[in-house]
Amino acid sequence: MDSSTLSTSAFNEEVSHFKEENPGYDFELEIISWQYGFQKIVQSVKHGSGPDIVQLGNSWIGALSMIDSFDPLEGSKIELDKNNFFPAAFEMGFMPRSEKLIAVPWLLDGRIFYYNRKMLEKAGFKLEENTTWDGMMDLFKQIKSAKMMPFCCFRFSESMILQEILPWIWNFGGDVFSPDFSRIIIDEPSSFEGIKRYFELLTDYSITHDGVIMESLYDRFFSTNDFVFISGQSWPLFVFFNSLSPEYKNDVVQKINIMHRPAGPANNQSFIGGSLLAVPKYSRNKEAACRFLNYLVSTESQVRYAMSAGAHPANIFAFEKMAEKMSLDADILTALIYNSRSYPNHPLWSLIDNQLSHVFVGLLNKIFAGSYTENELRSRLSELRENLEFLVSL
What's the pTM value of the predicted model, to 2 decimals? Predict the structure, then answer.
């Protein structure tokens, strides 16, 4: 498991609770960075030995299913009710183009629009409840004319940038694939328009922070009044806005809020991703692994772990219990999650993800350097489509 999403002390607490209820089990926790996690699992499958439970990134499911890494969970000792999970999260665990569930969602992370309501109120601006992107651009224009900075962007890594860009593509009616996965449509007009509009936001209305890491950006947004909006991850809600969290920040709660994602011409969907738990085929302790997996996704364990680790639980009932302690409009957060999508469920998605992310990070770097042009975007998308078409044809 990965140290960036796992609080070791919180996880060990769950192990202790499980062992109290199920004596006779021994545990060994192995922490691996996300950078090497996929490779580690592939090597374990190849050699037929490794951990009895693994934590997966949701973009890995397609590739791992192609090398027959996991048995379907149906008929195993896993006792799951899909109604306990957010629909988009539960769907992440299925093998591509099948009804075989091979992994269970554990922790989530979504894209959230945060705004500084104190700055808006002081300047006399009002945020419409169900605004569109056109409406937001008008508001950004007014904010900028008032000598305030509307938005902040930072240099995304290749592992994060698609989570930001995909909703723009979807909400303008585009996608990576056609609905039947037969064509790459990343450069078609609707997809192009969504990406173009996002880059226009960055070039016209954003502070761009070269090299600013995500946590530093949140610290700056929450502690200063430098800019009004950011698009960020959902985990800060479970840390800074949770009244039972040791990291609860009352000063942040007083000025920061979240909003419904502005609607594009086609939709107002957001992105949801996260990590899942699975029992590999090579596991020599499958019954015990399934029992522990059931425990980790239970409401009781999810509430306790998420509270201690500052994480976003995949279990709906755990989420609802935590939302009761949040100092914000939890209905907005709930609606955002229910109206979210994840990565396309394609067996080659991890490779496609790499290609897309590399191109978009390159274009973002052009924005940082002040050399981005719309013509270059059009050219790169056309080239990207050709490369992806070749990749999926193999």
Answer: 0.91
